[in-house]
Model the fold of this input.
Amino acid sequence: MEGRGGDETHLVDRLRRGDPGAFEELVITYQHRVFGVALRMVRSHPEAEEIAQEVFLRVHRAVAEFRGEARLSTWLYAITSRLCLSRLASGERRRVYEGEETLTRLASGGATPVDELERSELEAALHRAIAELPDERRLVVVLRDLEGLSYEEIAEALALPLNTVRSRLHRARMDLKEKLERFLP
Amino acid sequence: MTCDEARELFSALLDEALDPDTSGAVDAHVATCVDCRRELGLLRNTVALMRRVEPVRAPSGFVDRVRRAARPAPWYRRLAAGLFLPWAVKLPLGAAAAVLVGVMAGHLFRTTPELQETARVEAPGPEPVTEAPPPQEPPARPGARAKSLADEADAARRRDLAKAAPATAPAPGPAAERKAESAARAAAPAREAAKEGAKPTPADVSGRLVVKDREAAARALAELVAKAGGAEVARSAVAEATVIELTISRTGWAVVNRELAALGTWTPEREPTELPAEIRVTLQIVE
Done:
């Protein structure tokens, strides 16, 4: 993961000192990850960009209060998750969802037209299956399987007990398995 | 370990998030259970599929947009925000403005008799009209005539409503009594006028309506006038004619005038080209 360890501590120090280049570096480093989580949660590019922008602005405003007990990335994921869940819970959604082709692309496995066809069918099914998950389960599975966070990091970001993270992740994966069974080898 | 217990731990097993003892117990169960082995295989493939999903990228220009949004606002905006945004300032200012508007409205109401009169006349619901001595005739002043005609019409309407009101209507309170007094004052000139043959003011418009059935025509006319927003203020019937006096707006009269042809033959005796906003009409219906 980018921005880990000493680099992250150094970046936080520079942010706290008000180094103008530090904020830009933070955005450049984490933009795709923050935007990615937001997009997979709200499924709309404009809304995801609004959320991602708000995440960085909040960090910019509050970095002086960041005590460094959690990792900077965990803090970013925590803000992103909260904003996404509150947006999803609010009635102000624009409900213009992105097509699966832009959201759930699978790394290419085969090169023949048949492979391509199967792949796009699988992408569509996977997109639907992820979209149909309840928001809280979807968030956990996105953070774990798409963003690669550990159980502990997810528990910290979402302020949940470890067992809750474990059981939500398990339920989410079981739901996905049921819906994707016919595509699985 | 049962199948259900083992399956609950599959996800954590795949993530190597189990302690060695639990992990060993799950492995031992899977080694002896075909169904659970198959189930674990499917879940492993599901997770593998999820991990093949390509990451998404933030749109181009995102970094610049965030940097611009994070730039501090110009000094005048910060000053305005500092002055007006805090509730400690905004609340008292808002409350003071509301009080000021209220005081001004009250003062305007007290110093404008027309507003007070309108407030009394426009009170909703039928009010029983009590008899009251007619007030002194107010001195005529330009522009007051239209108002007095409207008052008369309103008083007539009130009389009709009072007739229609149920006998068990509640006794009027002091406010209702004041309104009733006002309505009675307004109705008095109309009653006097009706009593004395509508002499005091000549009608703006007058004419004869020759019809086949006088009673039917009078009824149809009353409906027409009511629909056009006018009011009948007096009616008298003699052997050969029914005389109806009414007040109506100029536009309302235009509507009635158009419809008169359907009732009979309308011959105007007095119909000036320029009429006031509220007019008084005398119709003589003959057969």
In short: The longest helix of chain A spans residues 20-42. The domain at 1-99 of chain A is CATH 1.10.1740.10 (Rna Polymerase Sigma Factor; Chain: A).
